[in-house]
Amino acid sequence: MIGFMLFFMPFAVAGQGFLKTQGKLIVNEKGKKVILRGMGLGGWMLQEGYMFKLGTIGQQYKIRDSIQALIGKVKTDEFYTKWLNDHTSKKDIDSLAAWGFNSVRLPMHYNLYTLPVEKEPVAGQNTWLETGFALTDSLLNWCKANHLYLILDLHAAPGGQGNDLAISDRDPAKPSIWESEANRLKTVALWKKLAQRYANEPYIGGYDIINEPNWGFTYPKDRIGNQEKENKPLRQLMMDITKAIREVDSKHIIIIEGNAFGNNYHGVMPLWDDNMAVSFHKYGNFNDQPSIQGFLDLQKANNMPLWMGESGENSNTWYTQLISMVEANDIGWAWWQLKKMGSNNPMEIKITPGYQQLVDYWTGKGEKPSAAEAQATLDELAENLKIENNVYHKDVIDAMFRQVQSIETIPFKKHLIKQNTIINAVDYDLGRQRYAYYDADSASYHYTPGVNTVGNKGRIYRNDGVDIQKEGEDHFVFKIEDGEWLQYTINVADGGKYSLNLLVSADSTAGKISVFVNDEPKAVTIEVPVKGEAGKWQEIKSAGISLKSGLNKLKIKFDKGGFYFKSFRFAKI
């Protein structure tokens, strides 16, 4: 068992039979409330270009075409087989359970289960493909072994369900699901097939029948469906799917999503089944009661459970705040996503030099690699998909579970202070904003007009608001603003007086630092002089600081920012 799987398990998770709705709650067969704490497996069955730093190459079919142009169809088919085998495994699901999740949301691409309508040998019939069903069976078995519920999510419907093309791998040159009855009929048939297969599986938590519709039915210029007042085609399709499911499965929860990425429910109500939940998705806005009040009002009017089927892609502070808020309202959630290239998810897929060269070619910034070079890079990428080769971001998991329950700070790394022990600046404590650290820009509110914060401006190493950059193999804190601070839990082997030596760089603005130990000021202001050369590190020393043996909380406060902070060490006086 890989080490990071055992980080902590804050909640007991165990299946208790079929989930069902009971008024505003989701409950198990014993009638006990269940708060779903889930993770979405984005990027496995359905690739989106942003997950892999591909710029304007958004849809999966474009990604596949780009690969095929380099290594040919046979090798491309082999690569995608390896992708499906390596991206998500039992180790991933074991880890989710160990961290505290009790559910998994599977974003499905229809083309792993059935042929596109234009490729059917007989028009109007459905050819069923074993690949998707076999993958789903395996995932369900892994979930069962860990007592996790599996929620099936049709992420890419036949034809595609919106104008955000990458979400559903939609080709705008072909009819969408809203423009093709054949696509709608295939969607209904697929759900019936899935329901037949899993009707008696209690670890299937529910059917999320169509992900994030975004379409202007009556206002074509409203491409995401925000202005729709009736949503008749959407309601009809979801009713048709429900009818087909109920012909073979009377037990599982059916989850619906409104237009405009699951947020516009005008005309969708009233509900048409007595075992339904309503999903909403929440990204990049404030985490206050007004931000979800519309859904709470909808819940009150219809007496049904809410489920936040997607959220994430932000900072740890935002995660902790949002999870605290929705759980206080008995709303379960599924995060987006387990792994991609980037640091704001639990697992990060590494970007290698070879992969960067490949992306540079695809985005017009570099030369075309040979077939052999491209093949080697793609083989390396497939290996790096495996969880044992991912970068684990324990701070993300800590923010989603422990920090929701506690304001306590804990060490990010063990810091045993001996003579000249070096501590990297970026290894400050794990904990909430204003408890483990303070950063003036702690989260992104990119969907809030007039608010231009971004959180960690470097977007590497950790997912707090603290701004981090990389130099060679070393990381350092940059964009330091007045009043920000970092806290470190240190274990002093030998109590006494020490000088604190900080490695800093100031190319244009002089800085000032103050030091606190166990919340007591311990040094006069430490000046950070200007050296006039970017990246020129200098060590500055404090006067003597008394440290007791054992654990101490060291706070380094930036009274005047504008410089860079790399590391510090203690020298016994």
UniProtKB/TrEMBL annotation:
Biological process according to GO: cellulose catabolic process
InterPro entries from the xrefs? CBM6 (IPR005084), Cellulose-bd_IV (IPR006584), Galactose-bd-like_sf (IPR008979), GH (IPR017853), Glyco_hydro_5 (IPR001547), Glycosyl_hydrolase_5 (IPR050386)
Q: Which SUPFAM superfamilies does the UniProt record give?
A: (Trans)glycosidases (SSF51445), Galactose-binding domain-like (SSF49785)
| Keyword Aminoacyl-tRNA synthetase attached | no
Alphabetized, the UniProt keywords read: Carbohydrate metabolism, Cellulose degradation, Glycosidase, Hydrolase, Polysaccharide degradation, Signal
Q: Which PROSITE patterns match?
A: CBM6
Q: Which GO terms describe its molecular function?
A: beta-glucosidase activity; carbohydrate binding
CDD domains, from UniProt? CBM6_cellulase-like (cd04080)
Query: According to its record, what are the GO cellular component terms?
Result: cell surface; extracellular region
Per UniProt, residues of the CBM6 domain are: 436-571
Q: Would I find Oxidoreductase among this entry's keywords?
A: no
- SMART domains associated with the record: CBD_IV (SM00606)
The similarity comment for this entry is: Belongs to the glycosyl hydrolase 5 (cellulase A) family.
Protein name, please? Glycosyl hydrolase family 5
- Source species of the chain: Solitalea longa
